[in-house]
Amino acid sequence: MTSTETANCAVDETTTHTATSIDAEPVEDVASQQETIIEKDVDALVHDETALSPPPEEEVYTVFPISVRRAICAAATLSILLSPFATSIYFPSISLIAKDLGVSVEKIDLTVTTYMIFQGVSPTFWASLADATGRRPVYLGCITVFVIANLCLALQHTYVGLLVLRMLQSAGSSATVAIGAGTVADITVPADRGFWMGLLGAGSTVAPAVAPVLGGVLSLTKESWRASFWLLFAAGAVLLVALVLWMPETGRMVVGNGSIAPRGVFNRPLLDVLLGTRRHGYIVQGAELPRAAGRRLPNPLRCVKILVQKDVATVLVGHALVYAAFYAVTIGFSSQLPSVYGLSTLKTGLCFLPFGFGVCVGSIGGGKVLDKQFRQSAARAGYTDPRAVRQDPDFPLEHARLRLIWYPIIVCAVLSAAFGWSFRRSATLAAPLVLIGAEGGAMGMFFTTVQVLLVDLYPQESASVTAANNLVRCLLGAGASAVVEAVIEKVGMGWTYVIVAGMQLLSLPLFAVEYTQGGRWRRERFARVEAAKAAKEAKLAAKEEQEK
Description:
Layout lengths: L2 H11 L16 H16 L20 H23 L5 H8 L3 H17 L1 H11 L1 H21 L3 H15 L1 H13 L2 H29 L7 H20 L6 H4 L14 H6 L26 H6 L2 H32 L3 H6 L2 H28 L16 H6 L3 H16 L8 H28 L4 H44 L1 H41 L1
């Protein structure tokens, strides 16, 4: 068990905290919990533009035991694997699919582009639904769509069917990234969030390295390229059954901190329906959400409102530049290995393993570094317990999260340029393998840093802010994937990745602006929310006075 997990476990079970501690001993004061939920929903009712107000004292942030939190995080990570896995397992079979369906490779490449477009757009709807009605129903809906799409893809025989069903496959799987981030935000406090988000990020980014290997192996079977879709169908079906039976609801608009039993049919695990919730010691029997904390209607345009916030927009564009480089590197790597080194499809897939290993190490290690930096910032800000930090508008959140972000960006840029020039017929294959593995580590740390910061900025709408991030990065990534091959043919691998490195370096001034100005923008947004909330409360008080 890691030190972070040990601390979590100790806090959950035995430790006594200050009045504002996040994981104090569970308090069986239902009224206090309901008051907390009411305060949260008021922000939503006045069209909350930012994170929640500082919580009342003695609030328990989550009552889920550490063992349950680990299982929830594992389920979220497995769900997140679906989208990148479905993307990358497809690549080794592109030429086989084109030959089998009697179309050009360019037409099959179009199915990759449309997949990425839906990967960016569809989470805006699903994430809004998850923030409004709970995580569990959206998990079930997304994965059901994914399972049906893969079954149909394995059985269909036309290009049009492939194109349309790949869009449906993307619409079902891509939202799990946003919902997974929202799930982790529901059950973790900022001081520990880096580690858990790192695990989540490792799962989502290691898939592009492992999936091509499986895709290459499966393409050699009797079922050829259809075997990949059969595998995805089976994996999705098994995961769906597990979620139906066990996955608890974590959405704070539905279960608060986990102590309130959900009422909706789709919010309740089948085992709870059959055996009852009394078997969970952390659920307060009879507790209900107050009427004022009722669910709001899903609003896909909420992502657009988040996008136009100055601090969020700055982070999203900076992140998208590096993410587009991520796609440019992986696509160029997969296309040039066969032509330069004469590798087979299977060997090309195996060459992605160093990259996947690097991303995994960078994501998890970066998460632990983030938690350490957060604790140091909390100590400098005067907090005796860093876990007591929530949404204090005066806390230097941007400094705590972005203090080291310059290093992975610069490392990625240097390695991208070196990667491009390493592709020479006289050069050993080890050179690009080492470079792409090291760059994977830097990218993993970068992606985790940005994701944690975004969730900290919008913890109550963590799925929506992640969907906004997904929209921007996938659209820019789709553009990069569409032009990188043409640029390589025009100027060669070396200069192409010098351009990619320059694109990554463009993110540095954006994060510098966020580092220096983001706190002020966040406080201004917080003040607007507080003013709107006060105005609404005054209006309600005046109405009650008139009724008397």
